[in-house]
Amino acid sequence: MADLLNIGLSGLRTSQTSLTVTGHNISNVNTAGYSRQETVQGTRVPQFSGAGYIGSGATVNDVRRLASEFLTAQVRNNTVVASDVAAYKGQIDQMDALLAGSVTGISPSLQKFFAALQTSVESPADVPARQLVLSEAEGLAKRFNTVYERIDQQNQYINKQMGSIADQVNRLATSVAQYNDAISSMKATGQEPNDLLDAREEVVRQLSTLIGVQVVEQDGGSLNVFVGTGQPLVVGAKANTLAVTPSPQDPLRMQVEFVSGGSRQSITSQISGGEMGGLLRYRSEVLDPTFNSLGRLALSISDEVNKQLGQGIDLKGNVGTNLFKDINSPDLMALRSYPTGADVRIDDTSRLTTSDYRLDYDGTNYSVRRLSDNAVIPVTGSGTAADPLVIGDEGFSVSFAVAPAAGSSVTLMPTRRGAASIEKVLDQADQLAFAASARAAINTQNRGTGAIGQPSLSSGPSPILTADLDRLFGSSGLTLTYDGTSGTLTGTLPAGATLSYVSPSTTGLTSGQTNNLRLDYTDPVSNETYSYEFTVSGVPSTGDTFTLAYNQSGVSDNRNGLKLVDLQNKAVVGVSYDTAGNPIANSGASFSDGYGELVERVGTLTAQSRVDSEATTALLKQAQDNRDSLSGVSLDEEAAKLIQFEQYYNASAQVIQVARSLFDTLISTFR
Predict the structure, then answer these.
(1) Are 415 and 295 in contact (CB under 8 A)?
(2) What residues have CB less than 8 Å from 315, skipping those under 6 apart?
(3) Is residue 515 within 8 Å of residue 84, measured between CB atoms?
(4) Residue-wise pLDDT tens digits, 2-44
């Protein structure tokens, strides 16, 4: 009876333990990361008797945690990727809406500006129409400023979010280290601390939502967690930290440092995965290129419009002035480098790229590397204001008031703040230079039918110099007389001026056809060069005269204004040049196309991020479902187990009752 009683008691204890474990599962059905547990039951050591070995009941050998390292790792790895994509998508959706929006984008303001310009050019003496040009120019500049501010807000958000993520990573890393210490101590007893293992794994999973991690289990049950390219965030019971600090190359962009003891290492470029990796990937793939693309476009618009205005004449007969702020004003040049001290001058906006650059100085020589593709760019010049460093064919040069220290580096950002710095500075509508700088006329006494076309300045300085034009044309104009014998135009040209025939003949005029001529002039005082192109058509007679003069009173002249309108479709952004310095045909883009390329690129990346988001979400759900199929708690299954173990408990109690009854019967026989 004693044996039967012990067997019943063992069953009672075993079923009670199973009921406890089942209740524990049910109570943790909503606990994140919990893995269901089950009892592993076995028989007790049998006892030998003359009839053989007789069983002595049951015992609980283990409380097993139903978890798979493979399935857990799948969830962790898919969480890393899904969090990366979600963070990236959350930012690029905002960027796409900003750039492509009919209200928030640049295109509407750009179209309004050129539409106003077209209307004004059609009536060049109409001051209210000119005033509309100024208003739309101000609207365009402010639209660039606003878009820049919105993008800069994203940059500030990323900086703050990086700091917040680093704090969370450090807190979770400390938790993992503490769990490692507790688990190692408990495992020394030879049993698994199931709930602590689940809690630690959930902390690691949370960590993987923030940053890409690699997890390696070591002897004793501790998990070592690594980030980046193998930097040990957690080793056993010790946790290192991450710090987010301003980048030494650009304080407006934060960097991530790995801190271990007294050493610090920048690992920004090595981080991938998780929310941190997604934000950094977005910053490098979208945010920085967008800053620079918008800046390049703003610089190009400002420069091209200002240069064209500088080659025209306003309503007062003066040379045109800038509509937008000079892109090479001292304050703007100083903002294009960090640390400050370098003046970055934009020499040719058509050659600008959308990259930043790093300039290194070893105390004797300068070297420059383009950061977008890490290409080494040749450098010429000494770096002084009189002999600036010309940075290859990149469209800008650099000068220093004081040479940088030996071994120092300077980050060059020629286009970064272009959209923030564009500004309308012209206030007087009558100062818009719509008239051309030169005019042509025929002598009304000419006997032939020869006609001369209005000259066009094909190349020249901006702004043009009135003293140069006075020396070229003189006070009464430059008179050209047709010589029928030689078929040429004769006249007294000033020093530095040459007249050449371009087509159809290079030696003289072809009577009855449209002849293209060019007047080239290098001023002996300013050393500036001018090139005017014009036509002579019809059949001139010997002695007929034509006059070229400075256009001081071109009130109704809109020829320079038409060139301003033509800028809308002229390829002036991102032009490629051959080795001789000539623009390659069909290279470059117009203002609208340049902005369209930016919108298209961001839109393509946005569409791809949405596809990636759907795919990674599906993969993560599949991985979670796979894990839950093994480790998740099913209330239906646990309810069935409750009934099973309850019956087991009652049956074991019945065994005890039988043993007691037998024992009572035995005792009563001896009374």
Answers:
(1) yes
(2) 125, 430, 431, 432, 435, 555
(3) no
(4) 578 888 888 889 988 888 989 998 999 998 889 898 988 888 8
